[in-house]
Amino acid sequence: MPFSNLFENPMVVIELYGGYVGWILMTCLVATVVAICFYYLVKGFQNRQTEEGDSLPQPGQVDESRVEDTSLVEDVSPQQDGQESLTCPVCKSDSCNDDHESTFLFHREQYKDHVDEERINLTQRQGEEDQSLTVFEEINQFKQLKAVTIIGMKLDDSSLSNLFQCTSIRTLKLSNCQLASIPRSLANLKDLEILDLSHNNLTTLPTRPIRSLPCLKSLNVSHNKIAVIGDVVKKLQALQNFDVSYNDVGQVPYEILEMESLEIFSCSHNKIERWLGPPNEERQANTSPVTSLNMSNNLLTEVPQHVKELKNLLMVNFAHNKIGANIPDKIVSQQISELFYLPSVSTLRLGNNNIKTLPPLDTTRLSQNIVLIDLINNEIGEVPAALLSMPTLRALYLGSNKITRLPADLDLNKLSPTLYDIDLSNNEVDDLPLVLCFLPSLKKLSLKQNKITSLSENMKSCKSLSFLDMSHNMLKEIPSHVFGLPELKVIDVSNNQITTVSSLRKEESSVIEEFTLAENGLSQFPEVLIQMKKLKKVDLRRNKIKEIPESTMGMAKDVKLQVQDNPIVDPPLQVCQAGLEAIQAFYEDLTTASSITQCLKTLFLGTYEAGKTSLVRVFKLNRSCLTKPEERTDGIEIAELHLSVPNTPGITVSVWDFAGQEIYYITHQFFLSAKALILLIVNLEEYESARFYSTCGNWVENIIAKVRNPVIIPVVTHIDKLSSEEVEQRCEDLAKKLEDQERRRIKDLQKQLERIDESLTISKEAVHAIDRKKQIDTLLQKRPLIHPKPVPVSSGKNLEGIQYLKQVILNYAVNKELFPEVGRLVPKAWADTEACVDRKGKELDVPYMTWDEFTSLLKENVPNLQPESRIKTVAQYLHDTGKILWYSEIESLQNHVFLKPASLVDIFRKVIRYNFEDVVDYDSDSCYREADITPAEFQKMKIDLVRKGVLHTKLLRCLWSDIKEKCRQGTFNVIFNTLIELMQQFDLCYDLDREENDNHTKSTTSSPERLLLPWHLKEDLGEMAKAQWESGGSRVISLQYQFPSFIPPGLFARLAVRAHNPKHNLHFVLHWNTGALCKHKKNRMLVLLENEGTERLVVSLSVRPESKDAHTYVEEDLIYHSWSTLKMLTLEIEELLKQWPGVRFDRFTACPKCHQPSFPGEWLHRRYSRHHRTVICCFCNERVNLHDVLPPLTLADHIAAYIAFRFCHQEMLPDVVSDRQLLRVAQKLGAEWESLAIHLGFTQADVYKFKCDHPHSAEQQILAMLTAWKTRKGRNATRHNLQLVLREAGVDYDAISSLDDYRVEIEEG
């Protein structure tokens, strides 16, 4: 009887078994059901408690919100209050969900409750402090234990010996446990089948214990320091998988071939130079069962002769060796031919060697199973015809060689019927090879980086081609027959010389989904794109297109259109950057109603007393009104005025008059705009050739660094004080100096480009160098426009030169290519938005809103501004024209909108002013007395600010008293706290009390008592800091950012503010005007930040141990923590430098011996291979430990290497997403990857860790995140599942479609 029937009709039990027995059985049944229900009820209650653990204090915990000093929390332990702690002893988390559940191992008394466990799993969370684990002898009571996994825990010999008493263990993984040796008691595990000792410190194989393991099938000792394999392996007759990769092995013993069961042997990433022969030098028939051999990344100069005897080999990998170096080509060619003739081989990898010639292969002897041949990055000149006729070949990779052509005398009817992926990139091919057009199954073809000038009509024969990469060639035109290929979905012709793209003919149609035309010479939008009905993505970046036509209304709205870095005039650049949907919305809105805008944002810049304010007054009043000393500008003055000259239409000018004192420079950067005309004012009376840089040159450097390609008019004033000859002479000198400065800047950029090209010849995969090359290319293309001759004027009574200056300004203003916003037709909704913002700005006490408040305001008051993307477009337009301030490009400030720019200026100017000591006086304002500040307190607060940079918020409330007067009753405190938060997010100050009272819990609504403003610091504590710094340990790692001629104002001060963030765990010991000495709160390290050099053009970050006693540190831990700390700080600098896209700088690592910047700053993308343990300093010629120059490989690097290895061995399911596919997705994703990471289950801390591990490349950050997701999912990390989660997260189509396999995924064996 089915068991389910008992629950449907329990009385059947009584009927079946009789009264008494039946009642007993039914009672037992009911009791069982009740017990099960009760169990799950309790379990659910416990889970709910865990989820609500943040809101209710658990037993053994203290509610931190109710105590002043959180140090009390640390003093309360489970032992003290008699309650069991719910904190995970591994990661110290109260709500741990990680897969390290066997935490009972930390508690000896809990062993007895787990003696029936079959599995133990304990994993240390990455980035946590080192955790030691003691395995107690009671573990020998675990009679059913089958599998043990311990990762990241320090284990001593005693713990290992105890663990090895559990003789039932069959799977043992002790990875990253800092093991230097293995006790002999390992031999007790007679049933052990899988042993993983990877990522430890073993220098030799544990010979004696492992030879006594008769059942051992898999041995992984990768990522250790093993130098010799030895002949012990022949004792391991059951071993099937042997991984000794990432060690220091110098040679492979012949005994490997005598192992009776070995199928997979990986010895990659070692120092192997040869494979030894048999001990007695007698050749024996070889019957080795090895099917997979990975010898990549070694030092082999020839193919070992024993390999040809391995008749069962399926996968052969000799990539990244030196095969062909110093060996005659004939011998190498013969050795390679033997590999092709192996009867079972299916995958052959010989890329990244020195192979010059391929053998003329005998087609009758070739393996009939070969599906993949990888020969990339060699020196091959000719391709054997047999390669293109193999009946089973699916992928042929010949990129980065010296191939000029393919065989032309082939029988086209005998071409390979299965070959569908060919890579011929980075060769010397000058014409499309005819043979490629007749491969019947060709789906993917890469011919990028060749010398091809045209695409012939033979391409019409490529009926199955779906992916074509012709980027970096010499094409000038794309004919329509290319677009008409029936299966072509992706085409990349970027980086050519294309000026014309043909339209489709009437009989032609296209199925292209992704079209890349970036970096060509297109001057018009290609009309063929409108004809492509299945198009999903178009890349037109870095062309010469000036207009996106209204005909794009006929394209699908979901097409992703990229048009950045084009000189676009119409529609507005802000619209075009928002994408095709925004462009279509703009044209749609223009059809209903439009308005004309004439406003030009104009910035007046120059040194103190240059005559800026007097010149603004002339423009405003049309008469002389010279500025008195007490009327000089504080911060920035903003005004709108009408500018006109006779017989010329006038325009409205938004004038921004910047104060010239140095103290204001740190805030000026927030108001410099790429969409503004800049007048650089120079006092010609005071000008001297020797003072060019201080009066003019540094301003130009600053403007270019911030804006990149500004329009600058040099204006010289006070000419009425000089003779006409003096005016002419000094103007000529100033013009020559400006011309020479720009010439030197270009020459310096070109030299940087040469150095980068040299580094790329060494490492073609130096991602940071490629990114830097693109940045410099952009700087060379987008040069500043500086008016050729300074315009001489006088603001005196005769107003000499004023009319001419107005005419020059108007001539630039009406230039549509420079300032397309002037005189532009815009939708009426945009004008309505401007009016709405202006009204709201007048209503608010402080004209400031969060982004959410701003969007809500516009949605309620301005129709036709949905979705939010339209609001962003209009907001960017209003920012560019000076109507509002919204820093969309600065992540920390994107949530803040200032409806009136002058309001932010007013906030800053109350605190940052050159004459603070003179203007701020106790008797001049009653607000100090009203705040109960005594004269003595006031004087102390004033001195603290002026000399020590310490701003008491009690004083700040008084400085902002006029803001308080504007506020409605009861609202100032909230606004006050908001303004302080804004100053912190602008990196202008940090909370000093959070540093000095770090253990105190503050209310989230209370303001700090003291702020520190770094640029106000006057004391030089460098000598005192030097003494404390040199008291630390000897091992110093120092990184430098060097600026050749100009460093962004306030960069170091803002870095110091960011370094004070709690996430860096730094306690500031000393902070002075050019440096900060800190102690790391967790890792016992000293951290030194300095602004070095005579002109302060170097920013250095250094770290060393806090103590000279070397015994207090483990070297590996010290290296890891040092680089982790430094990389997090470099991330802050990199984020700051993004705010100066035109600044020039170089990264260096200092030699720890001579302290000179000897090594290029490759802090992430390593140029040196793991074979280098030391490098030579070019200054002192001393050998330096590589880990003092470059960070060690991270866990993400190891995971990537592991996945690459598993992919080669095909130990994944065929549908498991490959690392190559993950890379394609990473290349397609943008800023949305962080929200995707949260969707995939990562925390904000995880996201930050990905950023810290890869500070210089967003692509590497995304790849690390995706790799970690794949590791978590294991065999469930399929391409289908990844596409599902990408769709759920709302990721763009092109990222999802990149997982559709254009690159072949090989199924071997």
From TrEMBL:
Catalytic function, reaction form: L-seryl-[protein] + ATP = O-phospho-L-seryl-[protein] + ADP + H(+); L-threonyl-[protein] + ATP = O-phospho-L-threonyl-[protein] + ADP + H(+)
Record Pfam families: COR-A, COR-B, Death, LRR_8, Roc
InterPro entries: COR-A, COR-B, DEATH-like_dom_sf, Death_dom, Leu-rich_rpt, Leu-rich_rpt_typical-subtyp, LRR_dom_sf, LRR_domain-containing
Entry's transmembrane regions: 20-42
GO cellular component: cytoplasm
Region described as Disordered: 50-85
EC supergroup of this enzyme: transferase
Protein name: non-specific serine/threonine protein kinase
The organism of origin for this protein: Branchiostoma floridae
